[in-house]
Amino acid sequence: MPASQIIALSVLAFVVFWAVGAYNRLIRLRNEISNAFAQIDVQLKRRHDLIPNLVEVARKFLEHERDTLERVTAARAQVIAAANLVKSRPNQAGPIQSLSMAEGVLANAMAQFKAVVEAYPELKADQTMRDLSEELTHTENKVAFSRQLFNDVTLDYNNAAHQFPANIVASLFGFKTAAMLQATQTEAERAPVKVNF
Known about the structure:
Blueprint: H1 3-59, H2 66-88, H3 93-118, H4 121-125, H5 127-162, H6 166-172, H7 187-190
Helix pairs in contact: 1-2, 1-5, 2-3
C-alpha cells in the first residue's frame, strides 16, 4: 500500500474518531442538562408541597385575605404545569421561558403573601407558620443553587456546540442551542431603588 493511501486512511480514521468523540461529548452535555433540570424539579416539587401547607395555616387567620391565598395557589399550579413541560424538553427555549415567567408570577404572589403575614402578628408568631416559612426559605436556597447548576451545564453544552470544529458535528446532527433559566422581572422591579433619608 502506497504511503499516500496510508496517510489518507490515517487522516480519515482520525477525523472519524474525532467526530465520534465530539458527538458523544455533545450527547453527554445534553444529558447533563436533563439531569440538572431534574435537580431543579426535585426542589420545585419540595417547594410546591410546602406552599399549600403555608396557605392552609394562614387560611384560618386570613379569611378576608382570600384573594392573596388564591393567587398563591393559582401561581403554584402554573409553575407545576410549566415545570412538567420542561421535564420533557429541558433544552428548549419555549418551555424554559414559560417556567421562568410562571416562577416570576409565583414569586410576586409569595411576596404579597409574606407582606400579608407580616401584618398579622398572631400568624407570624404561629410555630407551624414559622417552621414552614423557614423550610420554604431553605428550599428557595436549594432551588437557586440548582438553577445555577442548570445554567452552568447549559453554558458548557452551548459552548461545546458552538465552538469550532465541534459546531460542524453539532449542526450535522441537529444539536440546538439550549435555553438558560433567567429571572423575569417587570420594568418596575428593574428600576433603581430610590432611597430617601
